[in-house]
């Protein structure tokens, strides 16, 4: 009895045009390589090997040439385990006779775009220097593109007892399929020791919403590495029960896709947090700036925090709304300078703050304009179907429905009184109530 060996595609191939083309090219290469071999039977969309072991090494190398790091070699004799169990392999056989690319095992987990088809052709999982695995753009990605929408393998709340957390996660893992269990166990663990399940969860879990005590662990999204100047944004869609990833600036083919793991602190506390939580020093484009430039970045981030705190002062909003609105304008300029027009989520929150300042004082015209900008920023970083996007859209359409509308009549203005015929600079002066 021989030892089973082979390779898996991780993630499995999607029905996207790019993956189909790669699959067809791979099959054609194998057909040409063994066209005179009686032990190799060529089918329209797959190859039958009547003595598979003798061809494995060569076929694996051809597969790597076409699919790169998605080829996962396994060998039962060396304890390098397969990703998919035999039941899943057998179930996938029917795909080959349908002249379509085998569907992805991630299809139950990954969903992007209106066709619910995995968007794997725009990124691939690759080794990233000093970071382990990561997601790299396979094509140019426009700002606002939904890169991923993924349901969690499991959701877990933080617990005071590590033992209780370990037991709770172990019970949830038992309910998963073998493939999902392997995907979970393949994730990085920055807390090795007696509690591997809780270590993996603490390292990888993303909160299911702002300040949520509940976090989700994802097979693909958890491979996305950190940058203090990210090109993508992650958010929890509470209606769809999925984590989404959107490009917040154009991403070039070959560029790593990154999100931010921190709260935008200056470099000192930021790097200490990343080191304690993830066990590595951040060497992103911000953290390796020359000292003078890094100090300037730190000053901007401190100013962002101070302005954000001042804008949130309710007494100041009521008594000195013009100062609060001026702070919003200053904050927008600093955000654009620090994040290179990338922080759509921060901009969206800022525009909503400006909206609230105006609507509290009955200025529906400016409130509707700020809501429109906030809606555009939300669409870019969370998508049209985000609950927060839908909420701000309703405020854009009818600002007066906000619960604080009319608390003051200081700036009373009807929604339809947005001035017409102003150039860009004049409109900005009107919008932000800047004199001169």
Layout: helices, strands, pairs:
Elements: E1 5-9, H1 17-33, E2 40-42, E3 47-49, H2 56-67, E4 71-75, H3 86-96, E5 123-128, E6 132-137, E7 146-150, E8 154-157, H4 162-174, H5 178-185, H6 196-204, E9 206-207, E10 214-217, E11 225-226, E12 232-237, E13 242-247, E14 256-259, H7 267-278, H8 291-311, H9 314-319, H10 321-339, H11 344-360, H12 364-382, H13 387-397, H14 424-431
Parallel strand pairs: 11-14
Antiparallel strand pairs: 1-4, 2-3, 5-6, 6-14, 7-13, 8-10, 9-10, 12-13
Helix pairs in contact: 1-2, 4-6, 8-10, 10-11, 11-12, 12-13
Description:
Helix 10 (321-339) packs antiparallel against helix 11 (344-360). The longest helix is centred in the C-terminal third of the chain and has 21 residues, at 291-311. The chain has a four-stranded mixed beta sheet, with no helix packed on it. The protein has a three-stranded antiparallel beta sheet with strand order 7-13-12. It has helices at residues 17-33, 56-67, 86-96, 162-174, 178-185, 196-204, 267-278, 291-311, 314-319, 321-339, 344-360, 364-382, 387-397, 424-431; strands at residues 5-9, 40-42, 47-49, 71-75, 123-128, 132-137, 146-150, 154-157, 206-207, 214-217, 225-226, 232-237, 242-247, 256-259. The protein is elongated. The protein contains 14 helices and 14 strands. It has 436 residues and is α+β, with helices and mostly antiparallel strands. Helix content is 42%, strand content 14%. The termini are far apart. Strand 2 (40-42) and strand 3 form a beta hairpin.
